[in-house]
Amino acid sequence: LLKDFGMKTRHQQGFTLIELLVTIAVLAIIMSMAAPAFADMRTKQNLNRSVQELMAVFHDARSKATLERRDVTVELATQQQPTISSDTVDTLYWMPYGTSTLISTPTSLTYNLQGGVKNAATDTTFTICSNGSGSASKTVSVSMMGTVQMIGEGVCP
């Protein structure tokens, strides 16, 4: 009907360049706001994973010591390494995950055949930091009797 009056119809086929540029600019702004939050989330997840794995290694070592009636040692690395020694009959190895670091002085712990910590006069604590000074930390405690628990969260020294 419009052709009869000499008018042409316009059919839009996709987006204009301006619409595309505005969409890309909005996405870039949203991504720049989300990137730091994602990095923080990843750092927290590395810390949580390191703590959970440390507690699991202590539980495994205690179970192994009591079941096999032998001393079992847990050797701790202070930071992530490209390779770690393989577990042996009487030694389990652990290292922190990602950028987390172990800042505690004891780097090993030995469970005796009763499931207690060998040569321990008090509870032993291990602190893991997420990413250096001023960042989040979590502390794991191993009692003289060998029980393991996370006792606190804080800030790295």
Give an overview of the whole structure.
- Helices cover 33% and strands 23% of the residues.
- With 157 residues, the protein is of the alpha+beta class.
- A four-stranded antiparallel beta sheet has the order 3-5-6-7, covered by helices on one side. Strands 2-1-4 form a three-stranded mixed beta sheet, with helices on one face.
- The protein is elongated.
- The chain starts with 16 loop residues before the first helix and ends with a strand.
Strand and helix layout:
Blueprint: H1 17-68, E1 72-76, E2 91-94, E3 101-102, E4 108-111, E5 124-129, E6 136-142, E7 148-155
Parallel strand pairs: 1-2
Antiparallel strand pairs: 1-4, 3-5, 5-6, 6-7
Order of helices and strands: HEEEEEEE
Radius of gyration: 28 Å
How many β-strand runs? 7
**Global mean pLDDT:** 87
